[in-house]
Amino acid sequence: MKTIFSTLFLVAFSVISYAQNRWETTKKTASENHELILLNFSGSDWCIPCIKLHKNIIETEDFKKLETDNIIVYLNADFPRNKKNQLSAELKKENAFIADRYNPKGIFPYTILLNSEGKILKSWEGLISADALAFSNEIRQIKQNQNP
């Protein structure tokens, strides 16, 4: 019985540690580079607004420039449904850990801008109505307001 309990405890701890390591790595990178974190929850193969958000904003040059200009660190927590698109067990657990913390209502898409400590600065529920340039400029403005 002790062996079973110990094994279950170690498995649970390793899952939590793995997810926290990814999150902590993201926060550390953001902190070291003085960047914000843009966290996006998506259903990449079933959520039409999520697909549109990625196509019309995330995959654009205006958005990608936020990353290359050290404005944001982008983190996507994806929850695909189709069998062919399934994530690894580790990545599923990692995304669930992040969702428990930042998206407990299960909103899709849900985009959150955070500081490097994980404090929410702004959030967007559903499809962002702005185009990629306007959205990127809004994030740049928030970043400028964060600097002393």
SSE map:
Layout: H1 2-32, E1 36-42, H2 48-58, H3 61-68, E2 72-78, H4 89-102, E3 110-114, E4 120-125, H5 132-146
Parallel strand pairs: 1-2
Antiparallel strand pairs: 1-3, 3-4
Word description of this protein:
- Residues 1-19 form the signal peptide.
- Residues 31-133 form the Thioredoxin-like fold domain.
- This is Thioredoxin family protein.
- The protein has a single domain, classed as Glutaredoxin (3-Layer(aba) Sandwich).
- It is 53% helix and 17% strand.
- The chain has 5 helices and 4 strands.
- It has helices at residues 2-32, 48-58, 61-68, 89-102, 132-146, and strands at residues 36-42, 72-78, 110-114, 120-125.
- A hairpin with a 5-residue loop joins strand 3 and strand 4.
- The N and C termini lie far apart (56 Å).
- Mean pLDDT is 88; it is low at 5-19.
Please compute the radius of gyration using only Cα atoms: 17 Å
State the end-to-end CA separation. 56 Å
Tally of individual domains: 1
Percent strand? 15-25%
The CATH topology name reads Glutaredoxin
| Class computed from helices, strands and strand pairing | alpha+beta
- Number of helical segments with 4 or more residues: 5
CATH architecture type: 3-Layer(aba) Sandwich
- Roughly what is the average pLDDT, rounded to an integer? 88
Low-confidence stretches: 5-19
Signal peptide: 1-19
Protein name: Thioredoxin family protein
Domain Thioredoxin-like fold: 31-133
Keywords: Signal
Short description:
Residues 31-133 form the Thioredoxin-like fold domain. With 148 residues, this protein is an alpha+beta fold.
